[in-house]
Every structure is written in C-alpha cells, then in structure tokens.
Amino acid sequence: MLLLLLTAAAYFYFHWQYLALVKKLKNQPHRRVWLMLLSFLINYLFFIFCSVLEFPLVLNWFLFAFLLFGETLLFGCGDQRCALFGTLLCILYGLSATIFCRSIAAIVMNQPLQNFDNHTTSAANMKGIPVLLGFLLAGIILKFMERESIVERIRLILRYPKQQSFLLEMMGGLFFYLFINLLLYSTPLNDLLLKVWSLKSCLFCIISFYIAVRYTKRVCELSDYREKNRWMEQELEKRKLEEDQLRQQASLDVLTGLQNRQAAEEALAFMVQQQISFTLCFIDLDGLKNVNDRYGHEEGDRYIMTAAEQIHRACRSSGDRVFRYGGDEFLILFIELAANAAEKRAETINENFRFLEGFSYPLSVSYGVTQNTTESDWRKLITEADHAMYEQKRQKQMARE
Q: What residues pair up with 329 in beta bridges, in sequence order?
C-alpha cells in the first residue's frame, strides 16, 4: 500500500511538471489547478486499470499516449501541434526514464526483464520501485526543461510549422523505436546483453531527441533571421515611402496644389548645377491686395487659384514647371526655351484673363523673364526676373496715371 501511494505521488509530480511545461509553452497566465488534478486522477486510474488487466506494456503506453494527447489538447486550448509535441515529449521522457530504471534494476538485481513487465499478479513481478523511480526521474527532467532558455527554444520551434513537422516526425520515429524495445519485457531470458540493449535504447532516444531539437532550433533561427530581415526591409520601404510622401506634402502649396518656394529653389539649384538651359519667368498678380481689402480673402483665394490655372495652361507639357513662390508670386521654368518665346507664353496669361467671366474686377499679371546662359548663381536669376517684373508693373502704373 505504501509503495502504491509513493508511486502515485511520483506520478503526480511527473504529471504536474508536464502540464506546467505545457502551460509555459503556451504562455498561459494561470494554472488551471482543477483541470490538472482531474487529469492526474484520470491518468492514474488508467494506469491502475491497465495494471489490473495486465495489458502488455506496448498496449499500455500506446493507449496512454492517446489519453495524454486528448488531455493536452484540452489543457492547451485546442492547439493540435503543441498538444502533439507535448504528448510525444512526455512519452519519450516518461517511457525512457521508466525503461532506464527497469533496466538498471534488472541488472542490479540479476532478474530477467520479464519480471518488470505489467504482470502485477505474478509473485516475481518487481516493477513497483523502478516505475516509482522512473516517474520521479521523468518529473525531474521535465522540471529542468521549464528553464526559460529551453522554453524559448521550444517556442521558437513551435512558431515554424514546417520545421516543427520535421521534429515531430523524428519524435514519432523515436516513439515507435521505444515501443519496439518494450517487446524485450516479454522474454524470460536473464541475459545481460538484452538488459544493456534496453538501457541503450532509452539513452539513444534521449540523445537523438536532444540532437534533433538543437538542429531544428538552428534551422528555425535561420528562418527567424530571414523573417526579421524581410520585416526590416518592409519597414524601411514603408518609412521611405512615408518620407517621400511627407517631402512631397512639404513641397506643395495647399491652396493651388503647385509646388512651393522651397521646391522652386531646389529645382533652380539643380538645373544650374547640371547646366540645363532654361528661361525663368517671375510672375506677380496685379491688384491682389485691393481684391482682398474690398471683396475679402475668399475672393482673393479665388483670384489666386484662377491665376494658377491660367499660368499652368501657359506652360508646355514637355517638362515646364510652375511654382507658387509667395502669396501673389509665381515662377515658371521654361526648359530649353528662348526668352522671347517665354515672354509670348507669359503674355497669353493676360490674354486669357479677358475671356473669363464672373469677376467684378480686372485680372492681370506682371512678369519678368531672364534666360540662364552662363550664370551659376540661381539667386541672381530670380533677382533679375524680379526686377524685370517690377519694371513692367511700374510701366503699367504710369500708363494708368
């Protein structure tokens, strides 16, 4: 009776450590103690049932594997891969530990392996103490596996189904290898070679599983690095796109949709540096201040937007660029166009204003044109065009007076 209670305590320890490991793998915040206790009770009653009916060890552990898979699936919230991995892990360590202890006991006590099988009614059966020690040893191993470094290694493997499938296949092979070695417990021979072979089998499975885990972990790390690199590339592309969008928004005038002063100066500096031939036309709206004072700023904005549309129409579609340089100032860069041709295009803006209806005030622009020849300072080009524009504006004022 005492041995039975001690065996139950050893199995409870083994079972508790196993479900604690599953909880860590699933990163569950709380232990469902009632479920762990119920699972232990069902499992241990199953072991007693198998012992009473004296099932062969192969059938005993095979049925236990199915039972444990269902319990792990329930405890692990329906994750089949994690449940299968946990079940095979538990079977490998639990069965290897009990085989190891039975084999050592058979060697030390000079008894055949048959005396440590599941025939509990036999007077020669001695499986009690080896089974107790086997469950205790397996529990200690599972407790060791709850270390954070080992848990993180297994979590990494569980994140990659393809690599995990390889490990599950390896564990399945080791699982059946151990089952085949359980057939040794049906022989009545008291042969040291058979006992050493049984001992070797459990050690082989543990070492093979360790190597398979390390290999799978390395492969998963490579996959993890590839995913991180891919994620970083996507983030860099996303940030670059956001920067381009922000740069584009920063270079646009909100009212007209044209590029602003900053963009104009950058374009001028680039074209001068690359020695691209162009003509600069500096345009100023006539009478915008009077329109704002008399009709309000909303009407002034309508004046600006109408002028921006007409200025854009005066440009060619083959590379000419328009900028809103200030409140009532615009710049046109006529690419590879002579100054006199640029003046004619600028004059069409005033001509087109005459055909517009719906304005109770005159619309017109004053402009100045300068052609880039050998000038290397784009600021001087703006100054020259600005002076020419003001000269035209002054002549208009004198003509009116």
A: 284
CA distances in angstroms from 77 to 25, 194, 372, listed in the order given: 12, 42, 75
pTM of the predicted model as reported, rounded to 2 decimal places:
0.56
| C-alpha closest to that of 19 among 81, 79, 86, 64 | 86
194-234 pLDDT per residue, tens: 889 888 888 888 888 888 888 888 888 888 888 888 888 88
Closest C-alpha to 75, from 129, 34, 109: 34
Query: What share of the chain in percent tops pLDDT 70?
Result: 95
Sheet bearing 365-371, strands edge to edge: 321-324, 329-335, 278-285, 365-371
- How far is residue 346's CA from residue 280's CA, in Å, rounded to a whole number? 11
Hey, CA dihedral for 43, 47, 53, 57, is it positive or negative? positive
Quote the tokens at residue 194. 């058979």
What is the average pLDDT across 58-81?
77
Helix, strand and coil content of the chain, in percent to the nearest 5, comes to: 70, 5, 20
Q: Please state the rounded mean pLDDT for residues 20-42.
A: 75
Kindly report, residue by residue over 150-174, the tens digit of the pLDDT: 888 888 888 888 788 888 888 888 8
274-279 — which CB contacts under 8 Å span 24+ positions?
276/335, 276/336, 277/335, 277/336, 277/372, 278/333, 278/334, 278/335, 278/336, 278/337, 278/371, 278/372, 279/333, 279/334, 279/337, 279/338, 279/339, 279/341, 279/342, 279/369, 279/370, 279/371, 279/372
Contacts of 78 (CB under 8 A, 6+ apart): none
Which tokens is 294 given? 């008399």
